[in-house]
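Cross-posting from the modeling subforum.

Setting up a comparison between two proteins and wanted a second pair of eyes on the formatting. Protein 1 (sequence, then structure tokens):
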Amino acid sequence: NLRNNYEVAIDSFGGLWQSDNDDDGYFGVRLNYILEYGNYGYLDELTGGGWLEPRISQHPEIPKRHWHQNDPGVVPNFLHTGAGSPTGITVYEGRLLPKIFQDQVLNCDAGPGVVRACIAEPDAAGFKGYAINLMKEVNDKSFRPIDVAVAPDGSVFVSDWYDPVVGWNRQSEVSIGRIYRIAPVRHRYHIKHEEFKTATGAVKALESPNSDVRFRARKAILGFKSSVAVEALQLLYKNPNPRLRARALWLLAELEGHDQFWTRNALSDDDPNIRLAALRAARSQSYNLQPYLDELVIDSSSRVRSECAIALREVRSTDSPRYWARLANQLVPGDRWYLEALGIGATGRWDACLEAWWNAGGDWQSIPGSQSNTRVIGAMPGP
């Protein structure tokens, strides 16, 4: 239920980020943190109607009404950025730029001519944040950044379509375009030679902030004898940077086979991002998720628990409603991200999940603000 998303960026934990354009002119451009299988609210889920059609409980602010942000079942937007034409997006996991930009989403917007860093702050099971400009042209209105990428040395490259028109189906300046490189003053561009012929060298290359280098490293690592690759990856898994550890964990999960030593061990990691990545890695390898859910449905992190709820959508087991009920009983009122993850996990078996929740002590009246809602539900016709 997106409108006109340009592309999706993935971080080292397996998190997905994307931008989406509104119906031009309504200041509703947005950035999303993706919950798998989520509904992102462009059209009414039940009627297929657009946001201009009046409806009960519509949001008073047009940018949020545009994405049906008040409708049940719609995942919250991470960030609204106003009017624009969002284009290329990436996650900057380098260390060359100032700390404020590190591990943040970089997003081009060709409309206002800006490259933003979208600063994400944990917000219950999701994120909230704000944008700061990494690059903006204030005098030349033809500046149209359309893509951003991270170089192996940690500098950032931005491609500029350079045109006075943002029409996408026409151009005025067909012979002009520019590429910018963003780096600290006097930092010369230098690409070191990566070694992919040894497992140690390939694992070292996995630390690169450049996705192409990491892709080559991954291919090389999977080509080595499993025991040799695992031995080299163990060293990276001890790195204090959780994003580097997560990169190692994804490959360890792929190489370890059915003993699941590394992913199971990661469930007790101090960093919730690693526990989250362990569950995602287990899903990617089609492991039996029951041992993971047994531990993580009572995890201290609401974002880890919300990932458990999402994982339940694919677990067709008689135990699934029981897991769902345990997760539902830990819902903190106001945590919309967690609530929508629960909805994703109950897809196709709402009756069983709600019955398990009720039997586990669930009570509508115990949810603050629910009393009026139960009266409305009770007055609705139908089964």
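Protein 2 (same layout):
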Amino acid sequence: MLKNYFLTAYRNLLRNKSYAAINVVGLAVGIAAFLLIFLVIEFETSFDTFHKKRDRIYRVSTEFNNPDGKGYSPGVPAPVTETLRTDFPQLENVGAIFGGLRGLVNIPDTAGKAPVKKFDEENGVFFADPQFFQIFDFKWLAGDPKTGLSEPNTGVLVKETAERYFGDWKAAIGKTIKHDNKRLIKITGILDNVPVNSDFPLKVVMSFATTKVPGSGINFEDWVSVSSEVQCYVVLPPNVSPASIDAAFPAFVKKYKPADRLTDGLVMQPLRDIHFDERFGNFNGR
């Protein structure tokens, strides 16, 4: 009987070739579209899911309550990160990262003077503190994530960046680069290439302590200015809810911000929302 069904279907196809072709092509296009949409959704929802603490990682962001409505920034005032460590001891970890900016990188000669090579990095130049790499699981090929960025004027390179600068990434350890023609950075570590499904397009990462050197341009006493490039990330312990931190933020803001800027609040944003929340954005600009 099953054979008869196939014969009948085959004869119908032969009698209605045009109609059959349209149906087959339509089915093929539909399956292809379904697979394409599935792959796109799977890729987009995979961003930064490779971090082990992803469900407990939050970005502390700024919410502006203006007369004409709300405004948002992924950044916070420069002193926020360090002050959170003091005022919120219940947080498992707090880390800062600054950048995602364009930067000129020179490879000086052995005397640290005339540049041998010059690289204009359009994006991917950051400053971060050691805690950032204790929060996020970016793989280190060389160096210590706990101490590699603890001192001013130190930095790490992503493997592919180190290979562009020095040929062999292993040869980059201990070498010096010059950032924006004003600061010499000693390379203390190498990161593995960052996965494409990450909103942290790291290439060159210098120590956050470098930004505290006089003349860096960042004022760590300024509780008013908010730059989207100065971002703060925290890890919540399993027994602490983000709502409890959000509820404590108004008192925290009142303690440090000027009276005329108390409408600017802080909010907790889950890592899983960062790739999709257009109000705040991310370092990839996606």
